[in-house]
Structures are given as structure tokens and as C-alpha cells.
Inverse folding.
């Protein structure tokens, strides 16, 4: 009896150890505090985590936003570096790819000749930075893609009952906690557990796209393009193929009062670069 008891204890201990190893998640062993080395946000309620993430985003000086937004049945792929006073990057729709650059309130659009369609100036505008007049209906549409706070305010809202994920995850190399709205149907937001609790990834409700948010606070130099690479078309952009609205350029959505989009479909909405608030679920 006494000879077998230690062996039995050893077998039980080994079994418990194996179970512990099997249940370990994200390199956290049994009994180890999962919040060790984090910023402590994971201990908060889902509502407080969301508030912390939005506050961190609002106070940030810059962010790199990339992903896809779906609004009004149209999909836009974005890769934008954004600052409080400007932004630059690429926007791709079903039919066109174009670059945007905003320095202060000066907004520039660069696209190939096909983007300008059958306008008389298409050949001159292709692959040039075209200054978008503030008086042009498309200005607010395009500007919305370069406005850090307009995009973030719309994207980071979660409607419905919030809940916190049981386990931590990773977004790239960074540990994160995930909060969901209505079991994920209302969207998901991953928030950094390292350093400042910045939002790292947002999945929008209703399949309306998702984005990753990186390089918070990075330095993104933005300067106006050289004069020989710039075309100033005056108070209004040239008429483009398919708009059907004489003098109104194609754009991702519609300015207030409505216009025709790049496919020639009549649209209405508000400014913000996506035809509606990007956080509205499309």
C-alpha cells in the first residue's frame, strides 16, 4: 500500500499538469494572471473598454487606417494615413482607384485618365494631382476619406448590448481584448492591451466591412504636390462620364442634397466620404 501510494500521487500530479498545459491560452499557464504585463483594460467592463478606446482614438495625433467599408451597396477599399490636419492614401471602388492628399483644407485628387471618362480635360488630368475646389459638390465627399475624426467617430460606434470576449487575442503582434455588440451582430472591436488602449481592429455590423488601425501617433509628413504635378481647375471639377449632372465629379457617395455617383446612379446623403456615417452599418 505504502509502496504504490507515491506512484499514484505522481500519476495524478502528471495528469493535472497535462490538463493545465492543454488549457493554457495565449501562453498563459494555469494560475498565471492573464492581465500580467497589460495596461489593465481587460479587467474593465465592455462598456468601459469601449469608452477608453474611443477616448484614446480621439486624443491621438495620427493613425493608419486600412480595410473595406460598405455603404449604400457600394464597397470601398481604403489605405489611408490620417492626421488631425490632413490625410493621404488610396481609395479603391469597383470601377476606379484614386489617390487623395489633403494638407490643411487643400485637397488633391489623383487618378488615371479613365477616371475622368469623356471629359475634354481627361487627357490632361490623368496621373496629375487635381486640386478639388471647396465649392465643388465632390469636395466634402472626397474630404471625408481624409478626415481622421469623421472616419473614427463613425467607425468606432457599437450599438446594442456590449460584451467582453472570454479570452484575449492578438492583432498582429499586439495582445488585445475584444468587445462585441449583440453577440457580434452589432460589430466587434479589438482594443490594445499594451500601452495606450487604442482600437486595433473594427468589424462593422451587417457585413459592412472592417478596418485595421495601426501606427497610432506616427509621424506622417504631408506636403502639397509640386506645381508641375498639379492642375488647378478653378471653382469646379470637369464633367465626368456617367454622372449625368454636368460639372459634378464622381465620388464615393453624395454631397448634401444628392448628386449622381460614378456609376451614374442617383444618390443622396451627407458629407463624410462614404455617403453615410460609416458607423451606421452601411
Amino acid at each position: 500500500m505504502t509502496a504504490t501510494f507515491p506512484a499514484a500521487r505522481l500519476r495524478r500530479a502528471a495528469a493535472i499538469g497535462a490538463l493545465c498545459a492543454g488549457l493554457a491560452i495565449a501562453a498563459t499557464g494555469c494560475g498565471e494572471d492573464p492581465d500580467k504585463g497589460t495596461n489593465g483594460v481587460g479587467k474593465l467592463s465592455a462598456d468601459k473598454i469601449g469608452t477608453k478606446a474611443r477616448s484614446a482614438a480621439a486624443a491621438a495625433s495620427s493613425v493608419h487606417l486600412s480595410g473595406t467599408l460598405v455603404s449604400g451597396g457600394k464597397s470601398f477599399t481604403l489605405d489611408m494615413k490620417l492626421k488631425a490636419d490632413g490625410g493621404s492614401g488610396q481609395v479603391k471602388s469597383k470601377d476606379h482607384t484614386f489617390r487623395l492628399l489633403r494638407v490643411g483644407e487643400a485637397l488633391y485628387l489623383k487618378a488615371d485618365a479613365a477616371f475622368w471618362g469623356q471629359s475634354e480635360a481627361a487627357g490632361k488630368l490623368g496621373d496629375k494631382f487635381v486640386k478639388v475646389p471647396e465649392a465643388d459638390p465632390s469636395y466634402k465627399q472626397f474630404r471625408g476619406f481624409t478626415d481622421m475624426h469623421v472616419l473614427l467617430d463613425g467607425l468606432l460606434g457599437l450599438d446594442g448590448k456590449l460584451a467582453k470576449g472570454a479570452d484575449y487575442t492578438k492583432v498582429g503582434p499586439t495582445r488585445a481584448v475584444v468587445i462585441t455588440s449583440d453577440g457580434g451582430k452589432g460589430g466587434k472591436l479589438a482594443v490594445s492591451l499594451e500601452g495606450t488602449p487604442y482600437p486595433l481592429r473594427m468589424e462593422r455590423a451587417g457585413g459592412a466591412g472592417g478596418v485595421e488601425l495601426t501606427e497610432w501617433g506616427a509621424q506622417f509628413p504631408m506636403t502639397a504636390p509640386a506645381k508641375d504635378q498639379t492642375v488647378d481647375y478653378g471653382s469646379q471639377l470637369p464633367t465626368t462620364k456617367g454622372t449625368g449632372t454636368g460639372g459634378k465629379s464622381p465620388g464615393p457617395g453624395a454631397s448634401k442634397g444628392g448628386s449622381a455617383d460614378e456609376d451614374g446612379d442617383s444618390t443622396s446623403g451627407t458629407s463624410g466620404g462614404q455617403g453615410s456615417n460609416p458607423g451606421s452599418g452601411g
Remarks:
- DSSP finds five helices and 15 strands in the chain.
- Residues 129 and 230 are 5 Å apart (CA to CA).
- The longest strand covers residues 62-71.
- Confidence is low (pLDDT under 50) at residues 23-28, 240-282.
